[in-house]
Amino acid sequence: DEDVYLAGRNIVLVGKAAVVCASRGITRLVLGPLAGNPFPDATPEFFGTMARAMSLGLAQPFHIDTPLAHLHKDAVVRLGLDLGVPLGLTLSCMSPVETTHCGRCSKCRERRDAFLDAACDDPTRYATPPAR
Q: What are the counts of helices (DSSP H) followed by strands (DSSP E) for the chain?
């Protein structure tokens, strides 16, 4: 996990998104952190506090919802399949080769593991097959 940690990432992203939302009259931001996310800026307490801070700072109601926070990645894969999401077209790689997953980074490993744990075929194209 430490290879993908960026200190303050969600502080910056939520702050920027909240300003854009406020300028367009949008009062709800939906984010996709998953269960098991170890970072301090991906907790329910963090998102609740940020929502309150944005509401105060922007002088209008602002809410942050994280509907997938109780799910692990394999459950998200199954949900995506149930909803008909073309999972072979989604991208989660840290170092893609054009539109193809690199197959070497930790996000490619997590993706491969999620499909294995979900007991379904991985439609992802990898430039280098992920190590098992």
A: 4, 2
